[in-house]
UniProtKB/TrEMBL annotation:
Alphabetic keyword roster: Secreted, Signal
Record-level Gene Ontology MF annotations: cytokine activity
Similarity comment text for this entry: Belongs to the IL-17 family.
Keyword flag Secreted: yes
Pfam families: IL17
Gene3D superfamilies attached to this UniProt entry: Cystine-knot cytokines
UniProt subcellular location: Secreted
Protein name: SUEL-type lectin domain-containing protein
Position of the signal peptide: 1-20
GO cellular component terms given for this protein: extracellular region
Taxonomy, superkingdom: Eukaryota
Organism lineage: Eukaryota, Metazoa, Spiralia, Lophotrochozoa, Mollusca
Length: 171
């Protein structure tokens, strides 16, 4: 352990000299990151992450974003079609996560008619390690849950029933 800390100290000192004396942070060794990631989910926190540690970018990688019946390569047999997005963030482990985004608010029908159901995102909260600060030249990571869209499902729409006033019969 002493040797590992010595190596980290040398690397940090070299980075400080190369960067004109300013201290930069580096990630901890992979074995420490893996140990933190593979812990029990009871250790998951709901800390407020500072905005400087959130650099989320989304890139469409496959599928059609328009809502069409048939002719889809991805999700063509799905009632609610989806397209695929790569969600990346350099301050998160894993840095890359694929998502499935609903292409339609209601399923397309082959005859162009009105659908009686709606498409709704399936959201799954997955454990990730998120950078939360820097101490001694090494980034701190916290195990937290982040929401990702993992699919699209059909649901009955919320229908509001309006009471109809019936005329009273004369007495």
């Amino acid at each position: 352990m002493k040797t590992l800390l010595s190596v980290i100290a040398v690397v940090l000192a070299a980075l400080t000299v190369v960067n004109g004396g300013s201290q930069n942070c580096v990630d901890p060794p992979h074995n420490i990151i893996n140990k933190n990631y593979n812990t029990n989910l009871e250790n998951v926190t709901t800390v407020q992450i500072r905005s400087e540690y959130i650099k989320t970018r989304r890139y469409r990688v496959a599928g059609d974003t328009s809502c069409k019946a048939g002719g889809r390569r991805y999700g063509k047999h799905a009632v609610c079609p989806v397209y695929y997005v790569l969600n990346t963030d350099v301050n998160r482990i894993p840095q890359r996560q694929y998502e499935q985004i609903c292409s339609c608010s209601s399923p397309p029908t082959s005859d162009g008619g009105v659908s009686l159901v709606e498409c709704r995102a399936v959201i799954k909260h997955l454990p990730v390690l998120r950078r939360t600060g820097c101490a001694g030249g090494i980034y701190n990571f916290t195990l937290t849950l982040e929401a990702f869209q993992t699919g699209c499902e059909t649901v009955q729409p919320n229908i509001r029933y309006v009471p109809v006033d019936t005329p009273k019969s004369p007495e």
